[in-house]
Design goal:
single chain, alpha+beta, Alpha-Beta Plaits, Ubiquitin-like (UB roll), five-stranded mixed β-sheet, 20 strands, elongated
């Protein structure tokens, strides 16, 4: 499996990803031809630049009616405000028609159209209006259409089977747009990111733009640390600003997934056998152990000496929690002794995806083999239980609906 990993330590925008794709080996001519095929009066320019002393590629959209695009992807609120005021307002159907009419591969059209559909739905939800009443003053400008469609073409050319990303540095401060001065991340960005892991670091600026967030959704990117792989290519895409001490870059790493498990990690196993306690007390102690940091707690019925029935309480935890959890067991239960040991733990990689059911959103927990293939997927119980209680529907129906939605998403992704 070929993996594309995006390191978003300085955020992500459309032009940053275009630059990273070119630097990683996607022919610039392919992107330039894609821009021309849209017929919207725009072309691409590529520059080799330096950010924080690191070589990178900067890709700019050049339009007929201005010297150089000065838009949100350059992370400058004042330039973004000026550009958006003069950007043409387009409805979602107009933009989709432009993409559909272009002489491009079906896969490229499908990806780019999905990105704009997601953008439209996000804006519609923010303003509580129908999606066709959304006018893309923020994301409907020519340069952003070119950004998204060229990104879709470049990602397809790279031949990546699975996209992943690091947690996202969204930035901080404010951004100026037609809605006024708003906190970073902008409302559309926040809506598109959903449950993606985010943080803020570095000087105040907008680091993840609505286009960047839409690209991540378009690629069905999952989030986590760099997976085991053999590196085949890497690329650096530059943002518009030079930020001293913190390179304004997006790094793309492409590689072949390694067919191996991650290294085993140590696990502490604590056991106590109890024959003189009540079920209520043991349930209470189990809750205390989990709150104190135990990974898992379970109880097993056992036959003790003199024919007495008892319960073996087993606690699984990180070794650095051993002393605390051991003392808690001795203090809160009736046992006068216990035992522990350190064993090895091996776990499949886990990630989360969000699906929409008829009653609300549900997180799906996905376990993967080292190759990247799915080993198991299941809906988060707490999400489903909350919906079942709130909406008054059977829990099993919510869980089944979540899995159907996940299966449909996977089918669309594979097609």
């Amino acid at each position: 499996m070929r993996i594309g990993y995006l390191e978003c330590f300085s955020g992500i925008s459309g032009d940053m990803l275009l630059g990273a794709l070119v630097d990683a080996g996607v022919p610039f001519e392919l992107l330039a031809e894609t821009a021309a095929a849209l017929g919207v009066g725009a072309r691409l320019e590529m520059h080799r630049v330096s950010r924080g002393g690191l070589a990178a590629v900067k890709v700019d959209v050049i339009t007929e009616n201005r010297e150089q695009s000065a838009h949100e992807h350059q992370h400058d609120a004042h330039e973004a405000e000026h550009h958006h005021e003069h950007a043409p307002h387009r409805s979602l159907s107009t933009i989709l028609s432009i993409i559909a009419a272009a002489p491009l591969k079906d896969g490229v059209k499908a990806r780019a159209s999905r990105a704009f559909q997601l953008l439209g739905e996000a804006e519609a939800a923010i303003h509580s209006i129908d999606v066709e009443k959304v006018h893309f003053h923020e994301v409907g400008a020519v340069d952003t259409i070119v950004d998204l469609v060229c990104t879709a073409a470049g990602c397809e050319a790279l031949g990546v089977d699975r996209w992943m990303a690091s947690p996202l540095n969204v930035g901080s401060g404010t951004v100026v747009c037609q809605h006024g001065t708003l906190p970073v991340p902008a409302p559309a960005t926040l809506a598109l990111l959903g449950s993606a892991p985010v943080y803020s670091a570095g000087s105040p600026m907008e680091r993840v733009t609505p286009t960047g967030a839409a690209v991540l959704r378009m690629l069905d990117a999952s989030y986590g640390t760099l997976p085991a792989m053999r590196i085949a290519a890497r690329g650096y895409g530059a943002g518009g600003r030079e930020t001293p001490g913190e390179p304004n870059l997006l790094r793309l790493i492409v590689g072949q997934a390694e067919e191996r498990f991650a290294e085993a990690e140590p696990i502490a196993v604590i056991e106590a056998v109890i024959d003189d306690s009540t079920p209520q007390l043991l349930a209470y102690v189990s809750e205390l152990l989990l709150e104190a940091g135990a990974w898992d707690v379970y109880r097993t019925a056992v036959q003790m000496k003199k024919g007495r029935s008892g319960v073996q309480m087993t606690v699984l935890a990180s070794p650095d929690k051993l002393a605390e959890l051991r003392d808690l067991l001795l203090r809160e239960t009736t046992t006068i002794g216990l035992r522990w040991r350190i064993e090895n733990k091996l776990a499949l990689g886990r990630e989360f995806a969000e699906v929409e059911t008829g009653w609300g959103k549900v997180q799906i927990k996905i376990a993967r083999w080292p190759s990247g293939e799915t080993a198991n997927a299941s809906p988060e119980f707490e999400d489903c239980r909350a919906i079942a209680r709130e909406r008054g529907v059977p829990l099993k129906q919510v869980m089944q609906a979540a899995m159907r939605a996940y299966a449909e998403r996977q089918t669309k992704r594979e097609s």
